[in-house]
Each structure stands twice: as C-alpha cells, then as structure tokens.
Design brief:
- The termini are far apart.
- It is built from 16 helices and no strands.
- The protein is 72% helix and 0% strand.
- The chain has helices spanning 16-51, 71-102, 105-112, 117-127, 134-146, 151-163, 166-175, 178-199, 210-223, 228-256, 258-261, 273-285, 293-302, 307-319, 322-328, 334-358.
- It is an all-alpha fold.
- Helix 4 packs across helix 8 and helix 6 (151-163) packs antiparallel against helix 8.
Length: 359
C-alpha cells in the first residue's frame, strides 16, 4: 500500500446485512429528496420560466434595503427562513445521523476516506442530487466526518450541495441570465473541487499513518456492533444537541443585522471594488435558503446594484454561512475552517471582478 492513499486496505465485499442497510439508506435518501427537493423544484422551474421570477428577496422583500436592526427584524427573518427550510433541515439531520449507522465504515473509508483528488471528486459528485443549502447539508458532512471520511471529500459534498445545485442553475438561467449561470458554475466548480482538495493539506488526518487509520476503523466497527435503535438514537441526539442551538442563535443574529450586511448602495459605490469586497464578506457570513440568492440579486440590481457586487453575492451567498460554519466547526481542523472561509471570500471577490466584465 502506498502512503499517498492514506487509507488501510479493506475487504471489498459487503456482507448481506451491510448491503441491506446501504440499500435502506439509499431508499430513505431518494424518498426524502423526492418529497423535499426534486418535486417542488420541478414545479418551481416552470414558474421561473413563465414569470422570470421565483419570488421576492428574503432580506428586504421588494424594498431597496432591509429593516433596521431589531429583535423584531431578527424574529421576522428567522420565521421566514425556517418556514422555507425546515423540511430540508429536518431531513438533513436525519440523513446525517443515518450516515453514521447505516453506511458501512469500510466502504466509506475505501471510497471517501482518501486525501486524493478521486475521493474529492466522488464527494462533490455525490452532492449534486442533494440540492441542499449549506446549513441543511452540514449535518450530512458532520456525519461523514464522524465516519472518518476525508476532509476533502466531505467538504466537496458540503460545498457542492448549494454551489453546483442543478435546480438553482436552471432557475438562475430563467430569472437572471445564462451569463450568471455560467459564472456561477465555473466558480462553483473551482470552490467545490479545487478548494476542497487543497483543504486536505490543512487536515490532521492527511498525515496520520495507516496503522492509526486501521485502529480508527476497528473502533468504528466495534461501535457498529450495538443495536441499530440505540446507535441511531445516540447519533441523532448528539447531532441535534451539537448543531441546533448554534444554528438557531446564529440565524436570529444575522436576521437582526441584515440591514448592516446589505446596506443601500449609492451610484458612486454601485460597482466599486469596495462594494465587491463588502458584499463578498457579507454574502459569506449571511444565511439563506436554497436559491434565495436569485431574488436577492434581482431585487438589489433593480435598485442600482452593479454587476460586480452581484457577482460576489452570486457565489458567496449560497456556498457557506456563519451558521453552517458553526455547525461543522467541531469536526474539522481550525486551519481547514479558516482556509475555506478565506477561499470563499477570495473567490467571491474574483467572481465579482469577472462579473464586472461579463454580466
């Protein structure tokens, strides 16, 4: 075995029980995604094509600026946000817990446990059917990390869900233009696969020798020996306890502060470098439901926002957020978190600068 793979050799066969559990996981995932994502987005695509709109901005409605910071503003945004995402959020937590108890550890380590580009590609490609926002995909990424999936593969899954979401790209083409779609897809691919792969360099497990990885795998196998009900209840209980409180608090705080994050932009700053940088940072921190960046950009541009800041929001708004970072923070090295944060902002600025030229 070469040291570059950083994963031990495992038997290639499934036993019958493992195969049955993997099939059960796939069935639950397909049924849930059909109900939460695929069918609603199918109908939404026709609405977008007919009306060139998918609704008003979740930040400001049809107004140029968001309401002033207040507890009421925080509450109103949180209610609008959770009304939009609660089904996907519950399903994300369910999938994140089931990853830990239904999918065989050996198979996950063999396919997604390496720090190679191949594992990163598989993780990113697996995200495409999910079409979840960053916060709803975060519990699944956490579940993958708990099963010792590599940093690169799990990040590619997490980042790929919101950034290369095929439904969002379809909506974007109908509502904004194909130029926005191409720009988003190019930078989304760079973020999903390039940044995720490079993040392996900052991961502690990239330097762990094979014997230690084998010991981790043995410990996971012992944990899988208990009853399914006990393991699943423990998994989902810990996930709710560790994820939900920070999620709720962060959404409230960002809802209150949205007027500061997205101020009114005058003609002098509508397409300036300062505006591009400011909106790249704001978009990275702020939290939105899936595809909500489209009506936000449409509304802001109708009130004078330039193509540069719009391009920055195009990438940064969906890809990550402060709540989603808080949700995954315990399961990634701090250096990885800072690297991803800096990369999203930098790519957002670059996307904005390119947007000035092409949008």
């Amino acid at each position: 075995m070469t040291s570059s793979s950083n994963t031990p050799r495992f038997s290639r066969g499934f036993d019958k029980k493992a195969a049955a559990l993997a099939i059960l996981f796939a069935a639950i995932a397909i049924a849930g995604l059909t109900y939460v994502k695929w069918v609603p987005y199918y109908h939404k695509a026709f609405h977008a094509a007919a009306n060139h709109s998918i609704g008003s901005s979740i930040v400001s409605g049809k107004n140029p600026v968001a309401p002033d910071p207040s507890w009421q503003a925080a509450w109103d945004y949180a209610m609008a946000y959770y009304k939009s995402v609660w089904k996907a959020a519950v399903f994300g937590i369910l999938l994140g817990s089931l990853v830990q108890v239904l999918l065989p550890a050996q198979w996950l380590l063999r396919v997604l446990g390496k720090t190679t580009l191949g594992s990163t590609l598989i993780g990113g490609l697996a995200s495409i059917p999910g079409m979840m926002c960053s916060c709803c995909a975060a519990p699944v990424a956490v579940g993958l990390r708990k099963k010792q999936v590599s940093v690169g593969a799990s990040l590619a899954f997490w980042l790929g869900n919101p950034t290369i979401n095929p439904a969002t790209l379809i909506f974007m083409t109908f509502v904004l233009s194909w130029r926005f779609t191409v720009l988003r897809l190019v930078f989304g691919l760079i973020l999903t696969f390039g940044v995720s792969y490079l993040a392996n360099r900052f991961a502690d497990d990239a330097k762990v020798p094979a014997p230690e990885l084998e010991a981790k795998q043995a410990r996971m196998e012992r944990q899988e020996s208990g009853s399914f009900a006990a393991r699943w209840l423990r998994s989902i209980g810990l996930m709710i306890l560790n994820i939900v409180p920070a999620y709720i608090i962060a959404v409230l705080l960002l809802g209150a502060a949205r007027a500061w994050l997205f101020p009114s932009v005058g003609e002098g700053m509508a397409n300036s470098l300062l505006a591009v940088v400011g909106f790249a940072v704001a978009g990275t921190l702020f939290v939105i439901p899936t595809a909500a960046e489209i009506p936000m950009i449409q509304t802001l541009m109708s009130f004078g926002l330039g193509a540069g800041p719009a391009g920055a929001l195009l990438l940064t708004l969906p890809s990550v957020s402060l709540p989603s970072f808080l949700m995954i923070a315990r399961h990634y090295p701090r250096k990885v978190i800072w690297f991803v944060l800096a990369s999203v902002i930098a790519l957002g600025i670059l996307c904005g600068l390119v947007g000035m030229a092409v949008l």
